[in-house]
Amino acid sequence: MRRSEILASAQQLFYQKGYEQTSIRNILEANDIAKGTFYHYFDSKQALLQELVARLTDQTLVLVEPLVADTEMNAQEKFTCFFLTIGQWKVERKELLLQVLTAYYLDENIVLRHAFIDSSLERIAPMLATIIEQGVAEGVFAAGYVNETAEILLRIGQHLSEEIAALLLNPPPDMAAVVQRQVEAHEQAIERLLAAPTGSLHIFDLDTTLRWFTD
Q1: DSSP 8-state symbol, 128
Q2: CA triplet 176, 193, 112: central angle to 5 degrees?
Q3: Helix/strand/coil (H, E, C) string of the chain?
């Protein structure tokens, strides 16, 4: 219970003050705990951030699990909803995730960032593989190595996230056009990897993606 309380208050502090501006002392005071209690649960503020982001990943998994298990939806519908659901969930938590993003893209956090990405892909890829396998059975996808294909697809999605993050940190003047090009290019790459018809998988909603760049 205390671990969850610390995570919840830290999340609120990161939202209010920003990750860099939030000190361990702030977290201690918000929870009325001693430094030893904090270090009993977390080795550092970075470790707390890593667990907070992992908890956010858990929440996305809860969202997509019913999609995977749905017996009424076909594979294309599931595949599209899988990515759109995650994208919508993220943008609804934009303010918090922007704080996380700023911290994660510091040079000193590169090892932490890649470790988290690998961990997330390991947990999410089996769910996507189930959808791809259904699509192969229905004849709408072609994939000889389903598990490996799922991981490659998620890495393509992660690459789009990296591109959007770079644009957020250094916005170009023609933002909408650049974002649209990125979205369409990544969707096309995914369609070709699955041998799906061009334009059949609208999995990165442009309007939702552009909400990252609005107040």
Answers
A1: H
A2: 65
A3: CHHHHHHHHHHHHHHHHCCCCCCHHHHHHHHCCCHHHHHHHCCCHHHHHHHHHHHHHHHHHHHHHHHHHCCCCCHHHHHHHHHHHHHHHHHHCHHHHHHHHHHHCCHHHHHHHHHHHHHHHHHHHHHHHHHHHHHHHHCCCCCCCHHHHHHHHHHHHHHHHHHHHHHHHCCCCCHHHHHHHHHHHHHHHHHHHHCCCCCCCCCCCHHHHHHHHCC
- Asked if residue 166 has pLDDT above 80, the reply is yes
Predicted local confidence at residue 57, as pLDDT: 77
pLDDT over 80 at 136, yes or no: yes
Task: Read off the pTM.
Answer: 0.78
What is the per-residue pLDDT for 108?
66
